[in-house]
Structure prediction request, 253 residues.
Amino acid sequence: MIELGVNIDHVATLRQARRTWEPDPVWAAVEAHLGGADGITVHLREDRRHIQDEDVRRLRDLTQIKLNLEMAATDEMVGIACGIKPEMAMFVPEGRHEVTTEGGLDIVSQESRLKDAVSRLADAGIIVSVFIDAEPAQVEAAARIGAKVCEIHTGPYAHAFHAAGRDAESPAVLAEIDKIARAGEAIRGLGLRFNAGHALNYYNVQPIARLPGIRELHIGHSIVSRSVFSGMREAVREMKRLMREGAALGRQA
Prediction:
């Protein structure tokens, strides 16, 4: 059954706006879990703009839910992950001046370095995921470096969906869905787990949720935004309902 990983980075963004102690990301993780989340995702960035080291330690110690740690493939971050031991660590590209992650990780250009980082995490018993664009070369490179999970970047699809006025059947949207579907088929063909995420929301999630073999979606900003008005538990519950409906439609197709 399709699973939902809730990214709570922007709960920490709100807290850091005042450099205070609330809202607490750990509390948000518990509320998300109670709402039906299957996992919690946080991105410990080099500049510590939202999630802090102590947040990750407290999430590991105080919650009873799968933890996915997003991070750059640096010695510092690999060391932190090996110490904290999240269930999954996901390598993502990272830039100091970006507002959010702007594209998938280019594995092809740095296979040797990434293979070593993957090996270190695997030796610590951590499942390694990579956040990549829907490109066959990147999928094949992910398998070569030893990653067990590929999360396909859904940003281009989400932007096409918005530009088309939320028309899920527009040619541009269908073309992006087809790219993700073909990447997913390649991922599964290599024996890897097929996940997806980035810029998914309550309007565009179902066409992705119904793709064959998709295991997990990681969604953050949209859920945190909705939770401002409805509460985290209800925001997660509604997203999970939409995902399951979409997955059921995919099985019927």
In short: The chain has eleven helices and eight strands. The domain at 3-252 is CATH 3.20.20.70 (TIM Barrel). The chain has a mean pLDDT of 96.
